[in-house]
Design brief:
The structure is a homotetramer. By secondary structure, the first copy, chain A, is mostly helical. Chain A has helices at about 1-20, 30-50, 55-65, 70-95, 105-130, 140-160, 165-170, 180-200. Chain A has one domain: Glycerol uptake facilitator protein, CATH 1.20.1080.
Chain lengths: ~210, ~210, ~210, ~210
């Protein structure tokens, strides 16, 4: 399950990198989004896999004596697969079809809302309900900055909502069309269920 | 009282979202403000309700086994009500009347100063004076970023002061009119009293 | 000594507000700088005075029962005096004479370097060497963001150096004139000595 | 070894300052990058040397009684040497030859990737695998913001990758040329090995 954690963390790292740099990517946003998503994935997965998300980090931790040699290939393969999957998603989200900022293309918005609501719930469950991370002072930082990173990454695709209550508020303010509410309900609740399933899979002893 | 905490947290989340995106909302400010306000409300309310502020998160925590089934409807209702109240406030603050950045419209400024000074005092009392959060390392982050989120959300409505001493300083620097000092004194001290009352309500056993 | 801590914290809060908003102050910088300086001053002074820096917060903490009535007037007076002193400094730094960004006006640069190197050393001593804050996880955040807030506040006045080694590096890179090195040496080392003195004054039992 | 830690920390502080200010340096990026790199180097080195990285801080800590007189000259010399080395690197990275943003100049890209992947692995090993920092809540913040600071500092030189899996993802997205993959593999893995060696050197009793 350590490998699944490495896959997920690297996947969200590379997805965020891709979404924020594919259209050019200068300025303050890509580094802020990338540093933030790496931070939150480390807080979420550190207690399971050590949260490397990077073959160079795995090499460094192995040489320092905190990663068994037998785990090294699995870690690196999971990281590269996570990056490959992320690149495919980024190409889908941003290029297929070319999405104009501000318009809602349903499959892209569904995917974007599913992915980052999954990230949000995955982070919440790991930093705020896991036995292994109990008593930490970083849960608020981790959860808040997941939404920040998601808003930077896919805000122009789906509005960066990740929350059905927020969708209701945005409808009242005229920022989301009533006809699109189902996109958020479906994607956000499905992502919540998926995150709970994955949490149980990677934390089998934490009831 | 868990429901009140969920209402307050979702209210400030959606208020900050609304205030920063209603006029367009591209760029670095909305994600930074939104991630920050979510972070601070989680640090403030986590010890009472778990600080979900999101029906998808409530579903995920329920499926993971850390939210009793009987609480789920109440959480979700409180969250949606918080979002609805926030949307109403945002429409009032930003549209009624249309506020030009830099001019002080008294009712809007009073509301903006009251709301975010309340948020500030509510966060301070919960992260820095509560028995349940004693010994944390996040109190400074939570309090500082409350002011940051508030300044992003309503800085163009009231100046984002939230502090009578700051109002005095800004008058000396010529950034606040002497005739408007009462707005800050009234709104800030009333918000402080309201926050103390709410704190006692949600922490009945913390004398 | 609690009152001195309230004075210092409010002083740096209002100085940072003033320096970042006096010339207009829209955009991401003022809220980020203000939230950060408040955060770092809370981490620095929380263990001595509770770090209110705001009469509304003092009122809220008093009503909640964590600030004795006899301390309330002293806290509020210290906060207002800190704000007044800050406003005077801001007017001196930014208006007397009008400073063009990029030119070094010696008295202004000396004052700017002295003030924020004092803030830096004051924060370091309180978060990283005090018995009362031992074991915290926020020392790096507090110290790093002090420099960030200082660079936002007075970067256009003195370069935002606060560090003689950095001054040497900037001379080699051609960003600081050799003839100005004394400004940094004098202001930075004097500020260090002042911060050590103040630390001992406010922490008399911490040898 | 305390002196080596002071050298490394000041080196990365001044490298980040130089890279972000040498071409002009107004705006939000330099203070954010500088505050972040100082923060991460403090989290990485605090348990060994106290993480001063600044002769003024060393003076303040000495006067407060937490730095022995015999260490003061060594600390200050290490800090100035770190700043000098950083200035030389910055001049090499940014001026020799003049690098256009977006083009990959191989020696510059190799150096940039080596340096900040070293910083990343050095921070990971110290904050997430050291006995002396076990149980902290800042490891994710420290690691994530190392990448952020590196992306700000050298993003325009090498793309700010610091991670072979990310390089693979960026190749798939068409943001890195396949022919350049060796730059990342060589620089990143070499940096990981160097960081592991340095970690063992500065933490001789932490097996």
């Amino acid at each position: 399950m350590k490998y699944l954690v490495e896959f997920i963390g690297t996947f969200f790292l590379v997805t965020t990198i891709g979404c924020t740099v594919i259209d050019g990517g200068a300025g303050v946003i890509p580094p802020l989004a990338i540093g933030s998503v790496l931070m939150v994935m480390i807080y979420a997965g550190g207690h399971v896999s050590g949260a490397h998300y990077n073959p160079a980090v795995t090499l460094a931790v192995f040489l320092r004596g905190r990663c068994p040699a037998k785990d090294v290939p699995g870690y690196m393969i999971a990281q590269v697969l996570g990056a490959v999957a992320a690149a495919a998603i980024v190409l889908f989200l941003k290029k297929n079809p070319t999405v104009e900022s501000g318009t809602l293309v349903v499959p892209n918005a569904l995917a974007a809302e599913f992915l980052f609501t999954f990230a949000l719930c995955y982070v919440v469950l790991n930093v705020a309900t896991s036995k292994n991370t109990a008593g930490n002072s970083n849960y608020g930082l981790a959860i808040g900055f997941t939404v920040m990173a998601g808003a930077f990454a896919v805000g122009d695709i789906s509005g960066g909502v990740f929350n059905p209550a927020v969708a209701v508020g945005l409808i009242m303010m005229g920022k989301v069309a009533v006809a699109n509410i189902w996109v958020y309900l479906v994607a956000n609740f499905a992502a919540a269920a998926a995150a709970a399933t994955v949490f149980k899979l990677i934390n089998p002893n934490d009831k």
